[in-house]
Amino acid sequence: MPIQETLQKIIKQLQEGAHPSDLAEHVDDLSEEQKKELFNLLSDEEAALIIQEMDVFDQVSLLRILTKHRASTILREMATDDAADLIGDLPEEEAKELLALIEEEAGEIRGLLKYPEDTAGGIMTTDFISLPDDIPVEEAIMRLREVAPEAEIIYYVYVVDSQTRLRGVVSLRDLIAAEDGTLLREVMFENVISVLAHMDQEEVARVVSRYDLLAVPVVDEQEHLLGIITVDDILDVMEEEATEDIYRMAGTGEVQSVDILDASSFRMARKRMPWLFVSLMGGLISGSVIGVFEATLEAIVFLAVFIPVIMDMGGNVGTQSSTLFVRGLATGEIEESHVWRYFFRETKVGVTMGVTNGIIIAIAASIWRGVPLLGMVVGIAMFATITLAAVIGILVPMIFNRIGVDPAITAGPFVTSIKDVTGLLIYFWIATTFLEYLI
Predict the structure, then answer these.
(1) Which residue of 104, 110, 192, 285 has the lowest C-beta tally within 10 Å?
(2) Domains and CATH numbers, the chain
(3) What are the E-state strand segments in 290-335?
C-alpha cells in the first residue's frame, strides 16, 4: 500500500471514531519519516490523543523527530499529567526548551514535575473540577457546564473552602437531584477518601482498589487540594508495579527502563548480567561444597543421584515461599505487623511438605537400592532441605524489606543461591554422619 494511502487510512480511522490506542499500534509500524509526515497531517488534538496512548520510548523518539514548535503544540493539547510524564523522560535541556515554548501550561507541568514520578503527586492530574462550598447547586451546575470540557473526570465535584482545602465531594447524580438554593456544603459527602502527594503510587493503587473509587483526590499536609488520580492511571500503576516485581524476581529488574524490542543485544545482556553474577557465585560456592565432601561421594557414588532431586525440590519450595511473601507484601495482604506471624505459619507449611516428601523419597531410595539406611539419609536430607528452603524463602526477602530494599529482587538469585548451598551442606553432612554405616 502506498505511503500516502497508509497515512490517509490512519487519519480516516481516527476521524471515524477508532480508539487512539488501536491507532497507536499502527503508528509503531511506520518509519520515522512516515511518523513525521503523519503527525504533521494530524491536528494538534488528534496527535495528542494518539501520542498519549504510546509507550514512553515511542513518545520520546517521536517528539525528537518533530520540530520543537510542532512538539510544543501537541503537548499543549495533552492531559497535563501525561505531558508532565513525557517531559520528565526527556533530557534536561530538551525539557527546558519545550517548557519555554508551551508557556501557560508550563507552570502546571513544572508543578507536577517536582514530585517523584512514583508518588501520588507524580501521577496526579490537575484537570479536575473543584467548587467552593458556599455556592448553591444551580450555580454549581452552571460552572460545571463551563469547565467540564477541560476536566479529566466530571463524575465527582470536589468541594473546597476559601483556602482551597478539601472539605467534601458531590457526585454528579446528587448534584443534579438537589433542589435549587441548596448550598454545596449541605449536599456534599464530608468523609472523603484522599491521599497525600508523597504517598507511593503502589499504596495509592491499594486505596483506590479497597474503596472502589473512580478517582481519588490528592492533598498536601494542610489538606489543600492539589489534583486527582483517575482509575485509568491506577491501572497503569498496577501493571507497572506487577511488571517491576516480575522482572526483579527473575533478576532482570534493570531491563524495565529499556525498550526490549529495539535495544541492542549487548545492552540487554549488560543489563541482565549483574544478577547472573550472583547466581554464578552461588554455583561456584555450591561446587566447592561438593568438592569438600568429595571423599563421601567417592565412598558412595550413588549419593550423587539424589543431588538434583534435593536441590530442585528445595528450589521449588524456596521460590514458592518467596513469591507468596513478596506478592503478599505488594498487595497489602501481609501487613508489616503480621510478618512474623506469616513467617511461623510458612515454617509450619515447610515442615509439613518436608515430612511428606521426605517419606516419599526415603521409601523410593530404600526400594531402589535395597538399603533402608540410605533411604533414611536421603529422606532426612529432603525434609531438612525443604523446611530450610521455606524459611529462607521468607527470611531473605523479609530482611531486605526491613532495611528498605525491594524484597522482589531477592526472590530469584539470592534465594536460589543460598538455598543451593545450604541444601548441599545439609545433604552431605547427614550422609557423612552415617557414612560408616552405609559403606
Answers:
(1) 104
(2) 3-113 (1.25.60.10), 130-235 (3.10.580.10), 265-438 (1.10.357.20)
(3) none
Q: Please list, residue by residue across 338-353, b when 16 or more beta carbons sit within 10 angstroms of its beta carbon and e when fewer do.
A: ebeebbeebbebbeeb
Q: Which residues contact 40 (CB under 8 A, 6 or more apart)?
A: 66, 70
C-alpha to C-alpha distance for 369 and 248, rounded to whole angstroms? 42
| pLDDT for the residue numbered 192 | 92
CA 262 to chain centre: 22
> What's the helix, strand, coil split of the chain in %, to 5?
70, 10, 20
Distance CA 241, CA 239 (A): 6
Check if the beta carbon of residue 35 is closer than 8 Å to that of residue 62.
yes
Mapping DSSP to helix (H, G, I), strand (E, B) and coil, where does residue 171 land? strand
Residue 157 three-state SS: strand
pTM for the model stands at: 0.65
Cα distance between residue 405 and residue 219, in whole Å: 27
CA–CA dist 78, 20 (Å, integer)? 13
Query: What radius of gyration, in Å, describes the C-alpha atoms of the chain?
Result: 30
Residue 279, exposed/middle/buried by CB under 10 A (0-12, 13-18, 19+)?
Answer: middle
The residue type of 54 is M
Q: Output the pLDDT for position 250.
A: 57
Rounded Cα gap, residues 73 and 179, in angstroms: 43
Mean pLDDT of the chain: 82
pLDDT in tens, 228-244: 999 888 888 887 777 76
pLDDT above 70: percentage of residues in the chain: 86
Phi, psi for residue 293 in degrees, rounded to 5: -100, 30
Q: pLDDT at position 124, please?
A: 92
Instruction: Of 302, 113, 132, 115, give the one whose Cα is nearest residue 195.
Output: 115
